[in-house]
Amino acid sequence: MSNRPEPQNPQQHVFENVKVEGNLTTGDIHQTINVQEVPSHKPEITLQWMRQNFEEVKANAGARYTPEIHVDLPEAWVFEGLGRTDTFFDRIQSLYGQLYRSSNKAKSNNTLHQRFPAIAQSLEALQQPIAALITALQQIERDSLLEIDFQHIAELAAHAQTEEHNFYTTTRDAESSSKTDTSQAVQQTEPASRPDKEIIGGVRHNVSQLLDAVREIAELVISASAETANKKALLVLGEAGTGKTHLFCDVAKRRLEQELPTIILLGQHFNQSEPWTQILQRLQLPFRDRDEFLTALETAAQVRGKRALILIDALNEGDGKHLWRNELPGILRVLENYPRIGLAVSCRTSYERIVIPQGLIPESMTQINHRGFADHEYIATKTFFNHYGIERPKIPLLVPEFSNPLFLKIFCQGLAKRKLTHIPKGLKGVTAIFNFFIDAVHDTLWCRLDYDPSANLAQQAVNLIARRMAETGQPWVERADASTIVNSLLPGRSYQQSLFSNLLSEGLLSEDLVYLSAKSEGSDIQKTDIVKFPYERFSDHLIVRYLLDTHLDTSNSAISFTPTQPLGNLVTDVSQAWRNSGWIEALSRHSAG
Predict the structure, then answer these.
(1) CATH number at residue 143
(2) How far is CA 14 from CA 6, 35, 292, 348, 362, in A?
(3) Number of independent structural domains in the chain
(4) Tens of pLDDT along 101-128?
(5) Which domain covers residue 536, as residue numbers?
(6) 76 with 90, same domain?
């Protein structure tokens, strides 16, 4: 049942638009009543307003969105399906054309029937699911809001791939038979075998092209992009610094450039009150309620002929992170009444359990994982180095942390601030790169927070946090403790001007969530807000450096690794060594250095 507001009573509408002329006294027989249609002036959602909203969000996103340094990533493709854009349907149309053309080339003929009837029969069997696949693709309407039966298309593609296997088995058998026949007439072996090979080879080539198209179709129809085209709801998960905000902002920017209705919001601006009210207040739109707003957005989508998108980035941020678990199912239920509106939200992976309610994935939402620049490190470093005017090394830097956009950005900014156009020769190995990273953050913060640059409070804070981690044996510190430890270096500041807040915003520290076993039986698992270093190898390196600086006896290192010593405690048994494997690996790098 729809929750949209009921239309206004027609009679009420008439009397609200009455214009009276003349004297309405009983003595005036010339009185007239003219009914004129007065414009309702209902508020609209215009492209200009959506662009203004984007610019505000872009400003609030700050360093998390840098459109001038953009790397195209496959995660962006899913938004084409979610929005049912022309790009999405153009891809389907292109594959349809590719399939149709290659199908015509791979049809049987009289020569094939006469020389290789088994191959001809196998080819005809293959053409049956291909013909059905062509029909299914042909029936997809880009302007329709009906659900597309991608499951049926996937089944047809799978059937075609099975027949492909049968076809190749048949051609191998025919080829073997042809060789046996020609061997009985040695004098004619060469002239007779060549046409057979040419015929079979030509058919194989045509079928290979046909099945290339089938495989691409199969990949598309089982993709997250196709799934969201029907579900119209998307969840993007990712670790800290992987570029989720950049992805959402870039999607909004590109869609608005194409005049596609798009509204983007940041999770940091939400609190625990009713979400739709907050959305209307944040957007400062003059709508009376949720349904009037959604009807206006639906209308904007209908005018454009494409689905509108609401993007909410970082549900885990701010006070609102406890809101969504209760409210997100209801939001999705409301949007079911508006087929031209899709929703995409993002969340840090570690917060999924408390932010996203169970049962939404995969029933109501499609989930994808944003892995930053993973598998795209080369093009990412090339793009960033070119932007900052840094000479690319002849041998690529094999630094896994460069798959994290935030790390790569701060690293490049550090070089640029030192007016370096190449990576210093001494900057080799993870230790030097991490130290350079810390110094780059320090160079930013001493100017911003106005403290003595010789103090390097960023390095001091890192050392104190690493010390606490080493003492507790955990790669994290409870948030309250971390705040106290860090702010002791620069006391008396407001939160926004505190050292702790700025280390978080610069990516040197990262907020997260862990689930701890209950301290007493019968109690629930406890959720604890923590702070950690954003990169695992970074954390391992800092903790081990503290342990070595504090507990290594350089005159007799063997004593330092006895089971009763902190360093020796890392490898007291197999299970302990496995649990501390990251620290042990960092220890080996320090030893090698």
Answers:
(1) 1.20.120
(2) 17, 7, 21, 53, 49
(3) 4
(4) 999 998 888 888 888 889 889 999 999 9
(5) 431-548
(6) no
